[in-house]
Amino acid sequence: MKAKITFWDLLVLGLSTYVLLALLLDTFFELSAETSDLIQKQDFLICALFLVEFIVRFMRAENKLKFMRWGWVDLLASVPAVDILRAGRLLRIIRLLRVYRSASMLF
How far apart are the first and last CA of the chain? Predict the structure, then answer.
């Protein structure tokens, strides 16, 4: 079975990486209040986008239980402003990178 990499997959990878890096900067460096506020707003918007994506994919999944094998990670990654759940984004990036690695081995 060939794993198909789509533009959406690349966009999700990019947004996930961006948000993780921005949140790390905001956590470990002294940023201005405006910059920190902007990062938090962007995080919320990106999480909302990920939540909508999760819901659409869940509704389209033929086997919901099978979908949730990895879908729970995507659900956790789409919850904004809960620090412990932000680790789900890292898991999502790892999962996407595994898909890309598998796909690259097929080409």
Answer: 12
**Which residues, other chains included, contact 88 with Cβ-Cβ below 8 Å and sequence gap of 6+?**
73, 74, 75, 76, 77, 78, 79
- The model's pLDDT over 21-71, given as tens digits with 9 standing for 90+, comes to 887 788 788 999 999 899 888 988 988 888 898 899 899 999 999 988 878
What count of residues does the chain have? 107
In one letter, which amino acid is 81? A
Q: Percentage of the chain surpassing pLDDT 70?
A: 71
**Three-state DSSP class for 8?**
helix
Using alpha carbons only, give the angle 84, 86, 90 rounded to the nearest 5 degrees: 120
Cα distances (angstroms) measured from residue 106 to each of 5, 11, 64, 100: 12, 22, 27, 10
Angular region, 81: left φ>0, alpha ψ -120 to 50, beta rest: left
